[in-house]
Write a structure and sequence with these properties.
The chain has about 325 residues and is an alpha/beta fold. The chain is built from nine helices and 16 strands. It comes from Pseudorhodoferax soli.
């Protein structure tokens, strides 16, 4: 029997239950994986609260790292004993567990320099950062970006990666402690949105021009400020909706604000091609193994603490990455 976190109805953190489950043997194309660590991501709350509907009861969590215990038929690219990580979406749901069956094609073999805890803290965040920095826009040295939630798990990776590319990073934060953390990881400037007007400060910091690209993981509460922070023909990348979904808007708004572009990408579409996924993974793991990008694990939980972990996440008490240690 394995320990797993499941929910039988959607709602707040209190719907999460720690249960004993039977795992079984891996079928064709599957492996039995013993987790060492599991990632805690904001996307997990969307499954739990029903924003992303799934059949119930359901497991939760889409990112983990551990050791392969057994192989199903037709699995050739990993072996028993390999250390691996994975991320995905519905096809990998159920990561909050001590062991599980997982599709073998989701697995990434870990370099020796990357621990399972580090991998659980950065596989989803790292691949997200990789496509944001390498696929969304042809960045060049001297470009300026606005990065919301700059002290979060993705924010800290993107800020460091942007600094490597010679970009100026303006990060939004909610406290001075988070501002210090963001600046220590590559942000040139920080804006405390709790008492500063974000768009106004961006204009001041850019001499009235605005930024080339905004990475907005907050959504509803920051949408207009993000648009108002862009230069003419700038790009808004909507990568999350932590404050709620962006309301419908007239596309003519984009013309009025400077012929702006808006995109809503999803990680799944950037790792669907195995070759592209391998390329992005190799780049981000390479940066981390070489020490060019640091992964900050600031919160560690036991599976039994899943309710508190979700409360901490949704109340913005967390910084950097959060993981469950198995």
């Amino acid at each position: 029997m394995a320990t797993a976190v499941r929910f039988h109805t959607t709602g707040g953190p209190e719907v999460l239950r720690v249960e004993q489950v039977q795992v079984g043997e891996p079928g064709p194309g599957q492996v039995l994986l013993r987790h060492v660590a599991v990632g805690l991501n904001y996307a997990d709350t969307y499954f739990r609260n029903g924003t992303y509907p799934v059949p119930l009861p359901s497991g939760i969590g889409v990112e983990g790292a551990g050791v392969v215990q057994a192989l199903g038929a037709n699995v050739h690219h990993v072996a028993v004993g390999d250390r691996v990580s994975y991320t995905g979406f519905v096809n990998t749901l159920g990561a909050y567990s001590t062991e599980r069956l997982v599709p073998a094609d989701a697995l990434i073999r870990l370099p020796e320099a990357i621990s399972c805890e580090t991998a659980a803290a950065m596989t989803m965040r790292g691949l997200t950062s990789a496509y944001l920095m390498r696929r969304i826009h042809p960045f060049k040295a001297g470009d300026t970006i606005l990065l919301h939630a700059a002290a979060g798990g993705v924010g800290l990776i993107v800020a460091q990666w942007a600094a490597l590319l010679g970009l100026t990073v303006i990060g939004t934060v909610s406290t001075e402690a988070k501002a210090e953390l963001a600046r220590a990881h590559g942000c040139t400037h920080t804006i405390d949105y709790s008492h500063e007007d974000v768009a106004q400060r961006v204009r001041e910091l850019t001499g009235g021009r605005g930024v080339d690209v905004v990475f907005d993981s907050v959504g509803q509460s920051t949408f207009m400020a993000s648009l108002d922070s862009l230069k003419r023909r700038g790009l808004l990348v909507c990568v999350g909706t932590a404050s709620g979904p962006i309301p419908p808007f007239d596309p003519a708004l984009l013309a009025r604000k400077g012929s702006l572009f808006v995109t809503r990408p999803a990680l799944a579409d950037y790792i669907a091609d195995p070759a592209e996924k391998a390329e992005l993974a190799a780049e981000v793991f390479g940066h981390i193994a070489a020490g060019r990008i640091r992964i900050e694990i600031h919160q560690r939980y036991a599976l039994e603490d899943c309710v508190q972990a979700h409360r901490d996440l949704e109340s913005r008490k967390t910084t950097g990455s959060s993981i469950f240690v198995i």
